[in-house]
Write a structure and sequence with these properties.
8 helices; cytoplasm; eIF3B_RRM; translation initiation factor activity; globular; 4-stranded antiparallel beta sheet; 5-stranded antiparallel beta sheet; initiation factor; alpha+beta; 41 strands; about 15% helix
Length: about 750
């Protein structure tokens, strides 16, 4: 019987074996410890092949596997068992170089179609060992217990309000409340909670959820009583962003994530990352990323730039249909990912040397001559060496460049999409050859016209400081400002300019022409009604000025002859003022506007004012430590375009009905006030009567005379003793008065 290892003595190891190299045997037969299995994955769902077909399948499979990482030793690290009949069992074991690559394979390759008949199922070997051991999984199937049905609150219940009122959220002090807007009357509180959020609140794009931001992560609330719907644990989260259809949410923290294994939905794959993209319905992370810092301006010390100034936000931008999400690596490239798998489109990023910014089209569009609808993405790059600056329009998912535009002497550029993706305006700030002066011109791409022609508007003499398209329209407003005087604290005057297309026959859009200018303003903000037509031009966050101008671009009165060829009729309806104003917000119906002064900017006269769309003040609410007011958005209308046209044609009839309802409500409110006062009077008289009766009883018990009865007796005697007197009153009335000057 051979001795055991513990029975051997030292002299049994004294043979001269120093010159023998065991490295090849050790590498081949060394037993790996359990922690080494983290690099292994098990791939199921493979085709059944024989020995001759095995090599071909391994080569095909290797291409897929290397797309998310690197296989350690190529085909040799793929072990595919063969049975006694010489065919495979439909699964294989694969070893990656690092555990992180193995995790990436399970996330990105699981559920991916290998061909028309086979879909990959990828799992970590350690998970199979963990859950597949004897006793962990029952051999006999046991159907899951179905929880009894319980009614849940409708997430869009506020849309059923019979008066069609809108809601808004208000953050002041340490309280957050949601209220009904009651126009002139005080808002009706729905819910008001202390410490509901730590940083801020935000509505989702359709108003379904209210997000609160905490040190531990983000919470979503909804329903008529605002119960918690979902939680997204992201420590020290500072910024959030919803996708357009509110199916996903992106969170960002300046601190890298530290994951505690087994606690919460975050895994080791999120370790050290700053950004997480979540699926709102499941509450699970789709993918996490390290943040790309923005490049500081030339000559700036990177260490001196605060963390919040470095981050690009939103870090990820979504296509209108939420099929794609993209991020920019400053000066290098754009990476486009397919949702919800979050795999890199075509496995490569779009190289764009020097790229500064990009924007998705806000709607899926169809260009003339193209049979399919597509997602469009626009980006621009600055001048590099002898190469001019360039604006490029790209079609996704083909990544085809459908239009480019070269630009020269460019200092900066901004991309502005029209809401229906019919146009994109590139606002280009150009410098002179001496670089001492700036001017702005507009490059407008007509997306739906053949060849995507570009119209240039260069009638502005000054720099454009703000630009905004009319929602669902084809007009735009811009604000220009002259050069500031060196050494002066006085801001230069601004001009508000309106542009509209010329009238054309047919369904096309005419050339954009300047319609009207309002000079000598201090305005810096443009706030369109979400329904178009009406716009508020304001001066925000400026200590010296706080102007508000309310404009109507389809005024039904007389129109100047000089503007007869344009699709507009501009009227300044009212001018107002709100001292210390920092924010302007429209309600989702375009009926009301709020202006507010936030304590986040200054501490003077904080609160908000409520206005009609034509500038009439309805309510003023000074609020201590006021921070934020957000109107609750509404989802897109379910009415067809024809139904909407019918409503517009009959708007006057509907208006009469609503005016009658408003009058009834106002009269009802006045009647309620009168009834309340009458009730108070009756309570007062009743109390006085009761007190008099108690006092009378006390006098009778004490044997005291009643002073009121004595006073009444004296009055009666006085009236009987006096003779009747005639009182004559003389009233003087001036019939006419004439003033005459005598010289």
């Amino acid at each position: 019987m051979a001795p055991g290892f513990d029975q051997l003595s030292d002299h049994d190891f004294e043979d001269e074996i120093e010159d023998i190299d065991f490295s090849d045997l050790k590498e081949r037969y060394d037993v790996r410890m359990e922690e080494g299995l983290d690099t292994f994955v098990v791939i199921d769902g493979l085709p059944i092949v024989n020995a001759d077909q095995k090599s071909k399948l391994l080569k095909f499979l290797l291409k897929r596997l290397n797309s998310v990482g690197t296989i350690k030793d190529g085909e040799e690290s793929i072990f595919m068992p063969m049975n006694d009949q010489g065919v495979s069992e439909g699964f294989a074991f694969v070893e990656y170089q690092t555990p992180e690559q193995a995790v990436a394979a399970t996330k990105q390759l699981h559920g991916v179609a290998l061909d028309k008949k086979h879909t990959l199922a990828v799992n970590k070997l350690t998970d199979i060992e963990k859950y597949g051991r004897e006793g962990r999984i029952d051999e006999q199937y046991v159907p899951p217990e179905i929880e009894p049905f319980s009614d849940r609150e409708h997430l869009r219940s506020w849309l059923f309000d019979p008066a069609a009122r809108d809601q808004f959220a208000m953050f002041r002090g340490d309280k957050v409340g949601v209220f009904w807007n009651n126009k002139r009357e005080p808002p009706e509180m729905i819910v008001d909670r202390t410490h509901w959020t730590q940083l801020f609140v935000s509505w989702s794009p359709y108003g379904t959820y209210l997000a609160s931001v905490h040190q531990q992560g983000v919470q979503l609330w909804g329903g008529s009583s605002f119960k918690r719907i979902k939680q997204f644990p992201h420590p020290f989260v500072s910024l959030i962003d919803f996708s357009p259809g509110e199916n996903y949410i992106t969170t960002w923290s300046h601190q890298p994530i530290v994951v505690e294994e087994g606690k919460g939905p975050l895994t080791l794959d999120e370790e050290g990352k700053h950004i997480v993209i979540w699926d709102i319905r499941t509450g699970k992370p789709l993918r996490s990323f390290v943040a790309h810092d923005l490049t500081p301006p030339p000559g700036t010390d990177p260490a001196a730039v605060p963390a919040k100034a470095k981050v690009q936000w939103p870090a990820f931008k979504w296509s209108a249909d939420e099929k794609y999400v993209a991020r920019m690596k400053p000066n290098e490239s754009i990476s486009i990912y397919e949702a919800p798998r979050m795999n890199l489109l075509d496995k490569t990023s779009v190289k764009a040397e020097g790229i500064v910014d990009f924007e998705w089209a806000p709607a899926i569009t169809q260009r003339e001559g193209v049979k399919t609808y597509e997602s469009l993405l626009c980006y621009w790059t600055p001048e590099l060496g002898s190469n001019p600056a360039k604006v490029a329009l790209m079609s996704i998912p083909s990544k085809e460049i459908v239009r480019t535009r070269n630009l020269f002497n460019v200092t900066d550029a901004k991309l502005h999409w029209q809401s229906d993706a019919k146009f994109i305006c590139v606002k280009v700030d150009r410098h002179s050859k001496s670089k001492k002066s700036l001017a702005t011109n507009l490059e407008i791409f007509r997306i739906k016209e053949k060849g995507v022609p570009v119209e240039v508007v260069d009638s502005m003499k000054d720099t454009v400081i703000n630009f905004a398209w009319e929602p669902k329209g084809d007009r735009f407003v811009l604000i220009t400002a002259g050069e500031a005087v060196a050494g002066s604290n006085v801001l230069p005057k601004t001009s508000v300019q309106f542009f509209a297309p010329e009238k054309v026959k047919g369904a096309g859009t005419g050339a954009f022409k300047h319609a009207r200018t309002f000079d000598k303003k201090n305005s810096n903000g443009i706030y369109w009604s979400p329904k178009g037509r009406f716009v508020v031009i304001a001066t925000v966050s400026v200590q010296q000025h706080s102007d508000l101008d309310f404009y109507d671009l389809d005024y039904e009165g007389e129109k100047p002859e000089s503007e007869a060829h344009l699709n507009e009729n501009i009227m300044l309806m009212n001018s107002e003022d709100h001292y210390g104003m920092t924010d302007v917000d429209w309600d989702p119906t375009g009926r009301y506007v709020t202006t507010s002064a936030s304590v986040w900017t200054h501490q003077m006269e904080n609160g908000y004012k409520l206005w009609t769309f034509y500038g009439q003040l309805l309510a003023e609410a000074p609020t201590e430590k006021f921070k934020q007011l957000l109107w609750r958005p509404r989802p897109p209308t379910m009415l067809s375009k024809e139904e909407q046209r019918t409503i517009r044609r009959n708007l006057r009839e509907y208006s009469r009905e609503f005016e009658e309802l408003d009058k009834e409500m106002e009269e009802g409110a006045n009647l309620a006030v009168v009834e309340a006062r009458r009730r108070l009077y009756m309570e007062w008289y009743s109390w006085v009567r009761e007190e008099k009766e108690l006092l009378k009883e006390e006098r009778e018990e004490l044997g005291l005379p009643d002073p009121e009865a004595k006073l009444q007796l004296e009055r009666t005697r006085s009236q009987e003793g006096e003779e009747e007197k005639v009182v004559e009153e003389v009233v003087e009335e001036v019939i006419e008065e004439t003033e005459e000057i005598v010289q």
